[in-house]
Structure to design on (242 residues):
């Protein structure tokens, strides 16, 4: 073979190899999955006076009208809310809103006023604490003395709320949770807040005929004879898969 041809061929090969090395390799583009939204951490106050947790555009909107002194509500708070948070709410399929309803009248008023006396992010932790301690608080064996009951007959709603909240330990509970006593006292004396509680209870009664707690709404429809998570969960599941 002609040596000049061999040398020329070698030069072409070497040149081609050098050119190949000179061209930078294309980097693979990583396609990241969309960030998962932490729906269970999304908590907002609603215009109706409740507090909602979860996707505001969820397919299923679950609302509970509950009482902080209602045993059925305390049971749902212990059994249903954790299951909702980790399942339906976390997936973005369901939002859950709690609206206070004073089914026990004056007894509920103090806990409601104190329960709304915290930043929105602290609403559910305080609600959970009140529910978890409910039996110890309102289930105590001693009752309001007869003479004090008589005095409270003609008292203002704020005075009754303050006395009962103190007597049953709700004031002490919120102070233990970090609320200054002066703030708790001021919230219990807030006459405008008392009026709002009454107005919202009246609106719930008028719109949904709420007369027991808990009363659950699924997409605006009240669910009859549904008081436990065992009874509610199949209804929520059906609404999600509908």
């Amino acid at each position: 073979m002609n040596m000049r041809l061999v040398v020329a061929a070698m030069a072409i090969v070497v040149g081609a190899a050098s050119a190949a090395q000179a061209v930078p390799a294309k980097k693979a583009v990583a396609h990241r999955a969309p960030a998962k939204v932490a729906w269970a951490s999304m908590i907002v106050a609603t215009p109706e006076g409740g507090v909602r947790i979860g996707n505001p555009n969820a397919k299923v909107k679950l609302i509970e009208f509950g009482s902080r002194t209602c045993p059925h509500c305390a049971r749902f708070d212990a059994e249903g809310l954790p299951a909702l948070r980790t399942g339906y709410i976390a997936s973005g399929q369901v939002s859950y809103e709690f609206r206070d309803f004073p089914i026990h009248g004056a007894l509920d008023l103090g806990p409601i006023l104190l329960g709304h006396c915290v930043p929105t992010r602290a609403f559910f932790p305080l609600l959970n604490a009140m529910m978890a301690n409910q039996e110890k608080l309102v289930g105590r064996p001693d009752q309001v003395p007869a003479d004090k009951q008589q005095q409270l007959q003609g008292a203002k709603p704020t005075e009754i709320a303050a006395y009962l909240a103190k007597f049953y330990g709700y004031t002490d509970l919120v102070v233990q949770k970090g609320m200054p006593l002066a703030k708790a006292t001021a919230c219990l004396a807030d006459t405008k807040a008392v009026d709002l509680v009454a107005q919202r209870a009246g609106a719930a009664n008028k719109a949904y005929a709420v007369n027991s707690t808990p009363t659950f709404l699924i997409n605006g429809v009240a669910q009859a004879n549904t008081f436990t998570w065992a009874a509610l969960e199949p209804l929520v599941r059906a609404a999600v898969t509908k």
Summary: DSSP finds eleven helices and six strands in the chain.
